[in-house]
Design brief:
The chain has helices at 3-29, 38-41, 53-65, 68-76, 81-108, 115-118, 120-156, 158-179, 185-205, 210-214, 218-238, 245-270, 294-302, 309-319, 329-352, 356-365, 368-380, 387-420, 434-439, 442-459, 462-490, 496-520, 528-558, and strands at 283-285, 291-293. It has 559 residues and is an all-alpha fold. The longest helix is centred in the N-terminal third of the chain and has 37 residues, at 120-156.
Amino acid sequence: MNGMTLILIGTAFFVVAYLVYGRYLERLFGVDTSRKTPAHTQKDGVDYVPTKLPVLFGHHFASIAGAGPIVGPIAAAYLGWGPVALWIIFGCIFIGAVHDFAALFLSIRHEGRSIGYVIEEQLGYIGRLIFLVFCWVALVLVVAVFALLVAGTFVGKPAVATSSLLFIIMAPIFGFLVYRGKMGLLPASLIFVPLLFVSIWIGTELPLDLVTMWGQSAVWVKNFWIIVLFLYVFAASIMPVWMLLQPRDYLNSYLLYAMLIAGFVGIIAARPAFAMPAFVGWAADKPGGGIGTLFPILYVTVACGACSGFHALVSSGTTAKQLATECHMKPISYGAMLVEGLVALMALVSVAVLAPTDYAEKLIGEGKIVAFADGLASFTSTVGIREDWAGVFFSLAISAFMLTTLDTATRLTRFAWQELFLPSAGHERDAVSPARRVFGHPVTATLLAVLAAGYLALSGNTGQIWPVFGASNQLLAALTLLVVTLWLVARKKNFWVALVPMVFMTAITVWALMNLLVRNLDGDTGSPALVVATVVLLVMSMVLAVLAVFSLRKTTTTQ
């Protein structure tokens, strides 16, 4: 097997799935292009903004992609490239993309509210509150993980810090010209997309190396960047979506498109042969020590590369509030997840060409992001692109998307907290108490999210938080699929498309969380904060499962 064959097989599966299964889901759920979307009916110019397909696809894709589909498959590759590739392909088609599509659809039919609010229809007001708390805890883990990843990249590759700051400065200018200055999207793109690549060159020429400039340790500088990042996401969370989040994500999406095209062409041209075995057994030694197992660790390690609960929060958090028409639903939700699967396959290929010993040394010494960037750079060198330049570009592109995930996740954490203080369905016109107004205010909600995630980021490390993040992320997907299953059952539709993935994801993630709980209870190497987070996630998921059983019994007895 070589990389070209795997990429072509994966692409063929994804194209057929989009045309056939994606169309089936549109008919099953009842997509109606004549209905007005919440972006029109709830339009407020801050969160609810009708958005053109290319811009919204860029925002959505940039938000869900991040480093997840890169870090996960690379981290799981020690178990063999075969199981990882199979999980990415079939997980994306039948679980991840279905999950993303259903979450966006249900949110659209509930005034653009988050999947946590939608759950009240099936599990009641208490179920909604529990689910929103679950979402909030899971999102805090997401924010902490990506703050660590971005800050670490800023220290390891100072050119990324320079370019990222330039991206942030460019975004509001682009947003103002397009949304307030009435400049067309095409002419604005023709100006700012080239500037985006110019900022990458500036970053390589003027790297913001604070370790050298300030004479401080790498740990000190990393913590400094974490604080700066949290100040940035605090501001980004409460600003109108058109001013920063949307234009930055749109512009950054061109980096990912360029990375995808260059990587795809490079893999096809190079035809890299795999040195890593396809299957090494049901358990294997991890590169950093310890033992990893095919069940359940593989699935929660690959995480976003096949299915991600975080995507439901993006779909029902920011994307649903910007969808201009329901005909955009399939390309933005189902399609974007399949493209993310392609990114995951490319990440797998980038390390599958390494011998097991070289793979372990690279991950321990340089990290997963560098392994991915170096792998793609070596492939693209076969088509005449300088390997050193390509390596810098790929690293910068990945870092830009990690920053995108970071600020989107912070905004979603704010949404989840605010919805905790909304009245129950049917009582929206009731007077809101002063306490609800204070605790549900955007500034309060964002501040609490930043403080909680900042504590985790400054007291932990990516290696500790990532497994718990991966498991909680997958469990969140399982709970979303549970809601979708109940919705389909209540309407006498084919609920198996959601039930089977839900049962599988629930079993795998609960199993994984129990293993992680035992590991973090270790007084020497464990993390008390992660123990608390894991226990909270497990308890809430069990309560929601019980509520779902009662809801299902009630539904079936009344039909």
